[in-house]
From TrEMBL:
Subunit: HflC and HflK may interact to form a multimeric complex.
Stretches for region Disordered: 1-30, 39-58, 346-386
Organism: Imhoffiella purpurea
Function: HflC and HflK could encode or regulate a protease.
UniProt xrefs under Gene3D superfamilies: Band 7 domain
Keywords for this protein: Coiled coil, Membrane, Transmembrane, Transmembrane helix
Coiled coil: 232-259
Name used for this protein in its record: Protein HflK
Sequence intervals crossing the membrane: 64-84
Compartments, as annotated in UniProt: Membrane
Bias type Polar residues, positions: 367-376
Length: 386
């Protein structure tokens, strides 16, 4: 049964209670009540009614406006607080013009629109790669590939001094690489000079970046091994192999020289020492012979006949000492049949000591203690027969 059917009773949903004849609430009345409640919060509770003015309404509304303005000012000032991360730098712009650069930590600036802050990451490393074929100083073509790593050093210069710092870095890299390779020879670029070429490229790129005030700093330049063009790669490989063989042979020769030279120097020193010893020996023997001759000369002056006889006997002993003949000095009228053990004498003869020479006197022959032969002297056979 509907709420408005006859006999159904008064079931109006807009009424406050059953049986109430009041209709739905007026929308204007709802809005008016809401305005009164909001006005009471800001001092508008004593708002003048349509019948006449009311006292004290303007005073409360002025306070409310002041509180609102203070809150808005505090919020505006608080919006100027900003925090710069350790890897960042804050660039403060005042009325669109650069004012200051702030480091890591909390800071404050005049809020918008007076000032604004641009945060720049200065620890981020950017990398560019350059690869090209170029001509060397000795008119050879070589392919070079390198990577250049950089980061922001001056945030203000990076933002305002150069329109496109990354493009400037790329152009500077291309220019410097071509100039440096063009001033170097092929062997220097492809072998031990690669590190020096990379250092030179880094220094020249940094000079150009500083001249243009890009705010960038080159951290490293990594140069890959230079390669010849594919058309002549086989010939370059042969040349490199020949160079390596040359270095290997030179190293082997140097090692052999280091091994032989000390031995040769030792042999030379030994030969020089032997020669010096031989020289000293000859000088000593010569001096001894001279002293001996002077001594004999003095003796000869005293007794010439005896000295001549002595010299003759000593000379014959030296000449006939190793002779295989046995000479007998037999007295006249003696027995010529003497038995001598010739075989035993011949065996004992090599054991006889050789004449010893004294530097201070004439030579003296020392006979063997087992040989008891008479003095050897040449005897005329005819004289003995008589």
């Amino acid at each position: 049964m509907a709420w408005n059917e006859p006999g159904g009773g008064n079931k109006d949903p807009w009424s406050g209670r059953p049986g109430d004849d009041q209709g739905p609430p007026d929308l204007d009345e709802v809005v008016r009540k809401l305005q009164e409640r909001l006005g009471g919060l800001f001092g508008g509770g004593n708002r003048p009614s349509p019948e006449g003015p009311s006292d004290g309404g303007g005073r409360f509304s002025s306070k409310a406006i002041g509180v609102v303005l203070v809150i808005l000012a505090l919020v505006w000032l608080a919006s100027g607080i900003y925090i710069v991360e350790p890897a960042e730098r804050g660039v403060v712009m005042r009325f669109g013009k650069y004012a200051d650069t702030t480091g890591p930590g909390p800071h404050w600036h005049l809020p918008m629109p007076l000032e604004r802050v641009i945060k720049v990451n200065v620890d981020e490393i950017s990398t560019i790669t350059h690869r090209a074929a170029m001509l060397t100083q000795d008119e050879n073509i070589v392919e070079v590939e390198l990577t250049v790593q950089s980061r922001i050093q001056d945030a203000a210069d990076y933002l305002f001094q150069d329109q496109d710092p990354e493009r400037t870095l790329n152009d500077a890299t291309v220019t410097v690489v071509r100039v440096t390779i063009g001033q170097s020879k092929l062997d220097f670029v492809m072998t031990e000079g690669r590190g020096a070429v990379a250092v030179t490229i880094k220094e020249r790129i940094q000079k150009l970046l500083d001249r243009y005030k890009t705010g960038l700093i080159v951290t490293s330049v990594n140069m890959q091994p230079a390669k010849p063009p594919e058309q002549v790669k086989a010939a370059f490989d042969d040349a490199i192999k020949a160079r390596e063989d040359k270095e290997r042979l030179e190293n082997q020769a140097e090692a052999y020289a280091n091994e032989v030279l000390p031995s040769a120097r030792g042999n030379a020193a030994r030969i020089l020492a032997d020669a010096k010893a031989y020289r000293d020996k000859i000088i000593a023997e010569s001096e001894g012979e001279s002293a001996r001759f002077e001594a004999i000369l003095n003796e000869y002056a005293k007794a010439p006949d005896v000295t001549r006889e002595r010299l003759y006997i000593e000379t014959m002993e030296q000449v006939l000492g190793e002779n295989g003949k046995v000479l007998l000095d037999v007295q006249q009228g003696g027995n010529s049949l003497i038995y001598l053990p010739i075989d035993q004498l011949m065996k004992q003869q090599p054991h006889q000591t050789k004449p010893e020479t004294d530097n201070k006197g004439p030579a003296v022959a020392t006979p063997s203690p087992q040989a008891h032969t008479p003095p050897q002297r040449t005897v005329d056979r005819e004289r003995r027969s008589r």
